[in-house]
Amino acid sequence: MDSWETTFMEDLNQLRVSINSDFCALALLDADGFTLRWKLASGNENERYRSMKFQPGRGLSDTVVKVGRAVSLNLAEIIFTRKLHEYPIMLAESLRSAYAVPLHDGIQVIGVLLIGDRKKRLYRPEEKKAAEHAGERISKLVSRHSLDRLPPN
């Protein structure tokens, strides 16, 4: 594992443990600025997240990246709106609740930090704030690295 991966994994593990969540993952936009790919995960049950990518206008790319602010996700609502196919990470990791935070490089969104649980959960304001602070910290770390040096998966 590269040193940048170790640093990011420590942040993901620390966030997951501090808010008692089941899952925490980092997705970054490719160099094209449109395709979002999962890079690292903590608490994952499998490695399927590594092959997932999101095209513009769908799922997290549409809600978090386009809007540029945090979003709460609930599996029941996603099923009700018939958009489950747009959130494959929810299925792959059996998540019933999630909170997604955009990662910013100045004003531009460069990725997403996702925390999730395999049970229905409402995230408290202090848990959301912890995720947002972790997102700011990770954004700064990502900004220091060239996105071209991050592994493609």
Automatic annotation (TrEMBL):
InterPro entries: GAF, GAF-like_dom_sf. Gene3D superfamilies: 3.30.450.40. Residues 14-138 form the GAF domain. Pfam families: GAF_2. Coiled coil: none annotated. This is Nitrogen regulatory protein A. It comes from Cohnella lupini. The lineage of its organism: Bacteria, Bacillati, Bacillota, Bacilli, Bacillales.
